[in-house]
Amino acid sequence: MTELAPLTMTIELLGGLALFLYGMEKMTDGLKAAAGKQMNTLLAKLTGNPVLGSVTGAIVTAVIQSSSVTTVLVVGFVSAGLMTLVQSVGVIFGANVGTTMTAQIVAFNTTALAFPLIAIGFLMTSVWKQGVARHYGAMFMGLGLIFYGMAAMGAAMSPLRTHAGFAELLQSLQNPFLGMLAGAVFTALVQSSSATIGLAVVMATQGLLSLPAGIAILFGAKIGTGITAVLAAIGKPQDAKRAAAVHVLFNVLGALIWLPFIPQIAAVAEMVSPVAAHLEGVERLAEEVPRQIANAATIWATANTVMFLPFAALFAKLATKIIPDRPVEARAIIRPKYLDKELIRVPSIALERARMELGHMGELTEAMLARLKSAFAARDLSDLSQQHDQVVVLREAVLAYLQHVGRSELSDAEAEEHARLVAATGDIENMSAAISRELVPLARTLQEAAITPSPETTELLERLFQTIQESAHAGLRALVEGDERAAQTVVANRNAMLELSSELHRQQAARLAQDDPNRLLKHRVQLEILDKLRRIYNVAEHMAISVLPRGVLVGELSV
Question: Residue 263 to residues 215, 250, 293, 468: CA-CA distances in angstroms?
Answer without folding.
Answer: 9, 21, 12, 72
